[in-house]
Amino acid sequence: MGAEFNIEEELKKLPGKPGVYIMHDADDTIIYVGKAISLKNRVRQYFQSSRNKGPKIEKMVTHIARFEYIVTDSELEALVLECNLIKEHRPKYNTMLKDDKTYPFIKVTVQEPYPRILFSREMKKDKARYFGPYTSAGAVKESIELLRKLYQIRTCNKVLPRDQGKERPCLYYHMKQCKAPCQGYVSQEEYREQVRGVLDFLNGDYQKMVRQLKEQMQQASMELRFEEAAMLRDTIRDIEKVGERQKITGSGGEDKDVIALSHDGLDAVAQVFFVRDGKMIGREHFYLKVNFEDRPEEILQSFIKQFYAGTPFIPKEIDLQYEIEDLEVITRWLTARRGQKVTVKIPKKGQKEKLVELAAENARMVLDRDRERIKREEGRTIGAVREIERLLSLEGIERMEAFDISNISGYESVGSMVVYEKGKPKKSDYRKFKIKTVQGADDYASMREVLTRRFERGLEEQKESREMQGFCAFPDLLLMDGGKGQVHIAEEVLAQFGLEIPVCGMVKDDHHRTRGLYFKDQEIPIDRHGEGFKLVTRIQDEAHRFAIEYHRLLRSKGQVKSVLDDIPGIGPARRKALMRHYGSAENIQKATQEELAQVESMNAKSAQEVYAFFHKGN
Predict the structure, then answer these.
(1) pLDDT tens string 136-150
(2) Residues 348 and 456 in one domain
(3) What pLDDT was estimated at residue 560?
């Protein structure tokens, strides 16, 4: 690619227009994405030896084999495109957020005749009222449960009033936690009055409800209804617990985020304080991958672009620790995203400056506290993946998939697929398979079916342009719970679909412990004390656990077929007698024909059928 691309000639063709430039290395991997007011001027700077570019850029330039660019109508459009491309490709030389987070909201469906209170990860333009974002999903769920109970708000998904009276009221009605609007037991006006109480509570006015409950508690106590009084007391405590999460940070009821950071070498932490309606509802910190020479202003700007590209809520005001270079264009971008004017400030005095300093102090504390933990965690995850890369002479392993087969005496075989990304389990992409085409304990045939179904489905979903996750995302390395045989099965399936994915077997010793890796037709020893070995072992154990868990689930639902079901002449009574006498199918298989005939309800003919079934072909 690099030999075909003449950088000097391509630099002459650059337009003097705004846009995004994308740098590729010799393997055509995207290593950097940037935006420019003038592509011609900005991209040329990377290749001018007279400019002081800093060690990071100097190193990056040595790896550039080609570049491409996308022209936009404005710098604002370039900023939006840059954010999207960075999030999608996560280039090596861009400052990157180490974790992508989405924040929960409390959603009140006020657009419905009988509104509901819901948990949501996104804000939609659906005329509902959204409260948040909050930093703790657990706290949001607790609050929703409490509000439903306090205000007797329905939890069902019925379309009301259309579905009124079609079914009996649910358990919540009998528990006095819902007034059964599904039955028409409460008028729409009365129900919406309860919803107004919910909205007041979420806006911070929970003291009114506390006063009412305290009056009810005192009345119940005076009338010696102590159990009811105790329940009211606990409810008051729950309300106050939720209310205490909101700390006053100022007057005026503004919505704003306060952002500051701390960095040290290759580690950086950004701290965000969330202030909603004048109250600090929470805070969150983010780890960033940076370079030693990155200036704090550059780190902060990169964080802001990535953070607000991924969060659905943009506050009215954002207070920053440092002045950033693209302040004007970022402000316009945030205003466009919010749909209302957004102000970005760098406070120099007063309470706002103190709050920024507090955020910076929190960032420093997190960085100092977590530095060693972060390094240990990265050793267990990213470091372990890099160790496996070196062992197998591979590069760029992000996603690994492992498969396992589980069955009982060859019946009701199931398969598991577990996924690890950057050394961490991605449980949302785990998949389980019920074997459909294989009879008996044939692990090779079962594995072939599982892999065929997995990649066939993945290719179908890719054609439909679905989001790259689950079946749609393909692994950079396939890990098989076995050696040569399992690896060759996987390679044959991949060849069938024209896929080139490295396949590695996890070879076990006589004690069923991983002793090495089987890769490219040879066994590679692995350091049992290294992080790579520990990661492989965790993945192997997880694949096995997930398969066993699925098998147990099927058995608990009574869906696993007994091995005795397929024996002619053996009905439920004889099956029950055999299992009661021998305890397992394995013990029945070991019994002689004469011993089988002695079991209660068995006779010579049925004993012969059972014995012949287990010993056919012998």
Answers:
(1) 677 678 778 888 888
(2) no
(3) 42
